[in-house]
Amino acid sequence: MRSKYTIALPVIILLTFFSCNSEKQQVPGKQISKTKNTWQLKELNTAQISSLDKNKTVVLIPGGIMEEHGPYLPSFSDGYWNEKFTDTLAKTIAAEDSWSVLVFPLIPLGNSGANDIGMKYSFPGTYTVRFETLRSVFMDIATELSEQGFKYVFIIHAHGAPNHNRALDQAADYFSDTYKGKMINLMGLNEAQMNWFEAAKTKEEETEDGMKMHGGMSETSSMLYIVPHLVNSHYKTAVPFSGQDMDTLISIAKRPEWMGYFGSERLATAKYGEEAWNNNIKMLTRLSLDILNNKINPDTLPRFGDFMKQSKPDVLLDSLSLKEEQRRKENQEQWLKSKRLF
Ligand SMILES: [Zn+2]
Q1: Residue 215 CA to ligand 1 centre (angstroms)
Q2: I want to staple 265 with a disulfide (CB 3.0 to 4.6 A). Which of 64, 158, 220, 294 is the partner?
Q3: Which pTM value belongs to this model?
Q4: Phi and psi (nearest 5°) for 103?
C-alpha cells in the first residue's frame, strides 16, 4: 500500500495540539498549504478527525477486487488502477479552494470475478465476496461516515461486473437517501465504466483484440503503464482469446484451455496505457468536480448496472453468479446452525 498524501507526522501533531483544542471546526491542512489538504484516515487521531469540516470534506473510498487476470497480470490489477486514480483525484479535489479530501484505507473486496463468465466459480487469483456481503460492507461504512457528519463520499472501485456495480450503487443510494448526503459509485457511472482503459486502436488491433472485457490489449497496456514490474514479460507471446460479442466470449471462457483473460495481450504497450490513463483522468476528474460543485446531478447520469440489464447474456451470467453465491451462503448458514451460532 502506498501512502502519498501525508505530511510529516510532527507537523500534524503540532497543528492538532494547537488547533483541535481551541477551534473544533478548523481543518488542519488549511494551515499548511492548499495542495496538501488531503488526509489519510488511517493516520489521523480522534481529535484530528473531529476537527475536519464535514461539509467541506470529500471522503474517497478506494476498493480493489482480488480477481484472476490470467498468467500475465497481477490479481490486484483493478486495485492498482483504483489506488493510482484515488491519488490523482484526491490531488485534483484538494487543489480546489473549497474542498479537503479524506482518503479511506483501500478495501480489497469485490464481487463476481471474470472467471464467472466461464462459469468457473473457483479460479486461482479470485477471492471475492458475495453481492450482499459487498453491499453490507459499504452500507456499514456509509452509516459510520454519515453518523459522524460526513456528507460527500466517492467510492473508487473500478471492476466491470454488473452485479459488483449494482451492490455499490445500492450502498451509495442508501447513504444519499437516508442521510441526505452525496455518495457516488463513480466507476459505476456508465460513461466511466465504458471508457475505462480506452484509447484509439487501429482497425487491425480492434479486430485482433475483439470486444473489450478483461485483460486484453487495454488492461495489459494499463498495467504496463501503472505497475510494469508486475506484468509477466511473456505477455508478448500471449495467445489471443478474442471474440466480437458476449456470447462468443462465454463460449471461449467455458473451454478448458481458457487462461483467464480475453482479447490479445501481445498488442499491449505502455504508451497505449498512458494514453488511456490520460483520457480517463481527464473525463473522471471533470465528472467528479462537476458532481461536487453541483454542475451535474448524479441521479440523472446513466448507470452501468442498469445499462447492462439490456444484455441477455450478461443477465444470465449475473443470475448464475447469484445462484452460486446462494449455494455458498447456504453452506455457511448450515454450518453456523449446526454449531448453534445463528
Ligand atoms: Zn481487471
Answers
A1: 6
A2: 220
A3: 0.90
A4: -100, 120
Q: Residue 114 Cα, ligand 1 centroid: separation in angstroms?
A: 8
Angle at 325 between CA 154 and CA 340, to 5 degrees: 105
User: DSSP H helical segments within the chain, as ranges?
Assistant: 9-19, 46-51, 77-94, 131-147, 162-179, 190-194, 203-209, 216-226, 246-254, 270-292, 304-307, 312-338
Strands 100-103 and 152-156: unpaired
Structural domains in the chain plus CATH codes: 53-338 (3.40.50.10310)
- Residues 212-260: tens digit of each pLDDT: 999 999 999 999 999 999 999 999 999 999 999 999 999 999 999 999 9
Q: Cell 466480437 identifies what position? A: 244
Question: Which among 280, 264, 245, 275 has a CA at the least distance from the CA of 72?
Answer: 264
How far, in Å, is the centroid of ligand 1 from the Cα of 340? 39
CA of 65 to the centre of ligand 1 (A): 8
- At residue 153 the predicted structure's pLDDT band, cuts being 50, 70 and 90, is very high
Where do we find the cell 452509516?
Answer: 143
Residues, CB within 5 angstroms of ligand 1 (ion): 77-78
Quote the mean pLDDT of the chain: 91
Q: What is the DSSP secondary-structure string of 28-53? A: GGGGT-GGG-EEEGGG--HHHHHHS-
Q: How far, in Å, from the CA of 218 to the mean position of ligand 1?
A: 10
Residue 193 Cα to ligand 1 middle (Å): 12
Ligand 1 centroid to Cα of residue 78, in Å, is: 5
Ligand 1 mean position, distance from CA 214 (Å): 6
Nearest of 243, 231, 241, 230 to residue 264 by alpha carbon: 241
Interhelix angle 131-147/312-338, nearest 10 degrees: 80
How large is the average pLDDT for residues 129-133?
Answer: 98
